[in-house]
Each structure stands twice: as C-alpha cells, then as structure tokens.
Fold this sequence. Notes:
- The chain has a domain at about 65-185: Jelly Rolls (Sandwich), CATH 2.60.120.
- It has strands spanning about 60, 60-65, 65, 70-80, 80-85, 95-100, 110-115, 120-125, 135, 140-145, 145-150, 150-155, 155-160, 160-170, 175-180, 185.
- By secondary structure, it is mainly β.
- A hairpin with a 2-residue loop joins strand 2 and strand 3 (about 65).
Amino acid sequence: MKFSRFAETIQLKNNNHVVSVTVTLKISDCNGIIYFTDLQLQDGDQLTGYTVHTSKMLTKMQENGQPVPPRHYNGVVRTAETVILFNLGKTSAGLDCYIYPIQDMAAGSIEISQGMGAHKVRFLDSVNAGDELTLKASTRQCLKNGSQTPKDGFYQYSAAWDSKHTVKLEERKSARVLFEFQEMQEGGDRL
C-alpha cells in the first residue's frame, strides 16, 4: 500500500468558530482500492506534522491506585459473528486478536472489522486447523504460528465502553477467538 499525505486550509468567514467540517472524497477515472485514514484538524495557518504518541497523554486504567490487568474475551465463531467487548477505560485502546481455526480455511477468508465493517483487516494466507493467527496492535505484528504473515488492512482497537467487532470466516467453518486489550485513561503528560 502507498499512502499520500494531503494538507488543506479551511478559510473562515469573519473569524467565526468552526462548528463542523464535512469531508467528501471525489474520485474519478481510476480503479483499485483507496483507504482514507487519519484526519487531523489543527488551529493556525501552518501544518506542524507533529502527532503526539498516545503514551504521552494516556496511562493504564487505575482501580484503587493500581493499574487494572489487561482484559481478555474469548469465544467460538462459526462463519460470522459480531463480538461485543466491554472496554471500561476512558478512551480507545489497541486490541490484540488471536484466532485459532478449528478447520482448514482458504487464503483471504478470515476478516475482522469494527462495527459495520470499518477498519477491516483480512488475513492473506490460508490456514490449517490448529494454526494460530495473531494480530497485535500492541506490537504492530501480524503472525501465523509465530512468524510474520501478510495482511490487508488495519490493526484493531477497542473503543471505549462497548466495542463491536465483526469476525468473518470461510462459510460453514469455525475458529476460537481471543481478544486482549489494556484499558486506558487520561493522565499522562500534557503538551
């Protein structure tokens, strides 16, 4: 995949405050897949290009003054299921996903996405029963049985409160799934 960065200036009328911004993608005379990600709005007339790492602003969720341990959710998916994760943190958190196929599955037949299909990832290799597919947002790794494997799409995250994830498998096939994340809260350095 190749990503291109675009910067645009929004001109205000009479120095009014911006209440909302609508972004419309208009694409013509082309073919292929286009991903639109990471919209950054910034005050001022110069783009700084600086995006702070979340570790500067967030800390692990605390209970009684101690960090809560990572949350784990597991289950069995047959063909396709929507899994709801309860993230009691104050903000979104990176999601580590583990998939254990119960039957062999064709290349490209396993997908995970947010809610109604956004932020999708598809595993490109075929898998055998007993394999372990790992998609780790925490370390930015996509693994099959501990070795790098190709994917098409995005690492996953768990939205604060209830986070919906669709897991799709090859028709009439099953897999065990395990989701793991660390709940986060504000409290790190302020820039």
